Structures are given as C-alpha cells and as structure tokens.
Amino acid sequence: MPIERPSDSSLIIGVAASTAERVQLARLLGGADALLLVSNADQARAFLELTGVTVAPSAAVSATGVVADVPAVPPAERRMQAVRDPEPVAELRLDVHRRVVRWKDREMPLTRLEHDFLHCLVAEPGRVWTYQRLHHAVWGNEHLGHGSHIHSVVKRLRQKLLNLGATVTIHAVRGVGFHLLPTT
Q1: Residue 13's beta-bridge partner residues?
Q2: Sheet of 35-38: strands edge to edge?
Q3: Distance (Å, whole) CA 29 – CA 131
Q4: The model's pTM
Q5: CA 138, CA 153: separation in Å to the nearest integer?
Q6: Read out DSSP for 19-57?
Q7: Are 26 and 176 in contact (CB under 8 A)?
Q8: Cβ–Cβ under 8 Å, residues 14 and 35
Q9: DSSP H helical segments within the chain, as ranges?
C-alpha cells in the first residue's frame, strides 16, 4: 500500500506491532520532518497527550493501523516553547575542521567516525536517524551487519558527552536508530 507524504507541518505517527514492521516504516518514511514509531495506538495517544494534542480514540490511527497524519505543534507555539525552555542541544557545538565537540567552555577530540556520527545527530536534534541512514552517512555503505560497530561509536560518544558535562546524550529508539536529546 503506497503511503502519501503529508504536508510539511505534520507529524507522522507509524504504528506497527513488530520491530521489523517499525524498521520498514522508518525506511519508508525516513525523510519525514517529524516521525514517531510506536508499537500500538495507546502509545501514540500517550505521546500526543504529552505534547498537548487531544485526539479522539479512533483519530490517531487509521483503520489499517499504519499511519496517521496529526497536525504538529503550530510554529508560534514552538517558538514560545523555545523561549521558555532553551534547548540544551543548541549549546553543543561541533568543530568540523578540528573534529572536536564543544560544550560551554570545554572540548573533547573525536575520531572520524565519532565526529561523522555526531554531526548527523547535531544537524537535526531530536530527529531519529535510522541505523541504515547513519551507516550510509558515516561508513559510506549499506552494510549493517550485526550493528556492534554502531553501538561502539554510540558508547564512546555518550562517555565523551558525559565527560564534558553536557546535558544532552544519544538516545536509542529500539529497533529503529538514534537521536540526540536532553538527558533526563
């Protein structure tokens, strides 16, 4: 079944019970501005309620349970949120020429892989980067293997961010990929 791309101010919510189905949805919708993949409709409703969007019980998920198109937070409201809660992610700086990550007045050197990986996440904070897209952007090929090399880079980067005292870290989205978010 072909999936229509929504307007550019929409949040796409993909609902799929298995990890394999969520990975397939991530591949199909990976270029979306805002994408949330969950395993059931209740998780989608819970997320929407946290963001202040009220949804009728049947409105968040289509009859097939594949994708629902829910309006995103209006731009004016996003700006208000940004003023109230400055994004800690914005304080993280990446020096692409020297391959260092900077947090406030401290910096830490990065390997090429760490730099390229973090560059993807910093470029679009909060966006979930699928394993496949990260692998292509960082390693330059499609081979995913068992993924231990990706997890190794993530582990080293998390430790470096922690050593810098950064209030952001790399969060995993199980079965899908990673994104950069404030620490909780």
Answers
A1: 36, 68
A2: 35-38, 10-15, 67-71
A3: 14
A4: 0.55
A5: 11
A6: HHHHHHHHHHHTT-SSEEEESSHHHHHHHHHHTT----T
A7: yes
A8: yes
A9: 19-29, 41-50, 75-84, 112-123, 131-139, 148-164
Q: Tokens 């990550």 correspond to what residue?
A: 101
The string over 98-108, giving b where at least 16 C-beta atoms fall within 10 Å of a residue's C-beta and e elsewhere, is ebebbbeeeeb
**3-state DSSP helix/strand/coil percent for the chain, to nearest 5?**
40, 20, 40
DSSP state of 124: S
Structure tokens at 89: 């992610």
Give the full edge-to-edge strand order of the sheet including 129-130.
129-130, 177-182, 168-173
pLDDT in tens, the chain (184 residues): 444 544 445 677 878 777 777 777 777 777 666 777 877 777 777 777 666 665 554 443 333 343 434 444 444 444 444 333 346 677 889 998 999 999 988 999 999 999 999 999 998 877 899 888 888 889 888 766 677 889 999 999 999 999 999 999 999 988 888 999 888 7
State which amino acid sits at residue 143.
H
Residues 6+ apart with CB under 8 A from 17: 39, 40
Q: CB–CB of 89/168 below 8 Å? A: yes
Task: Let me know: does 183 contact 167? Beta carbons within 8 Å.
Answer: yes
